[in-house]
């Protein structure tokens, strides 16, 4: 997978473009896992590989990264901005737009999304642009809140809960808010060239309008 350009990044506390493969809807790091992270050119990046299984790689640079995986259990790669120190409401940042240019080849349970957290309230969010053969977040314990049209694309608005799970504030109970495209921007077992922009602040507004 090749992520070519991250032009303007997001609101919230921690925000990133993320590739997840065979992932649960939240994850925790254990001693047996492979985890690499750092900062390059003002962008935070992270790679996580459960149980050091298979072969993975992530090559970050300022505002872009490439990654690959094979024979894994669960794997993610992500890059973005951390606004935690500013402690401001997302509206204070104005229109927040992420532009992406991605070469993405999903094989099975994989998805590409914009991902992040907020504090006060504590919330984890996903804006899903494409997936392989499984549409996240599934249907188990997930509530539906209609649809919203943003940037000319229609998204399902969904909510799930995580109980006593790892978060940016330690083990907590917190909601997950989801915007999932009604049709995937990618096809399974195909190299997809995906280029678009996402008005992230409009998704926050849509979640609020839906009562989340």
UniProtKB/TrEMBL annotation:
This is Endo-1,4-beta-xylanase. It comes from the Bacteria. The keyword Ribosomal protein does not apply. It comes from Ruminococcus flavefaciens 007c. It holds the Pfam family Glyco_hydro_11. Pathway: Glycan degradation; xylan degradation. Residues 31-212 form the GH11 domain. Residues 1-31 form the signal peptide. One of its GO terms (biological process) is xylan catabolic process. It catalyses: Endohydrolysis of (1->4)-beta-D-xylosidic linkages in xylans. Belongs to the glycosyl hydrolase 11 (cellulase G) family. PROSITE patterns: GH11_1, GH11_3. It is an enzyme of class 3 (hydrolase). GO terms for molecular function: endo-1,4-beta-xylanase activity. Its EC number is 3.2.1.8. Keywords: Carbohydrate metabolism, Glycosidase, Hydrolase, Polysaccharide degradation, Signal, Xylan degradation.
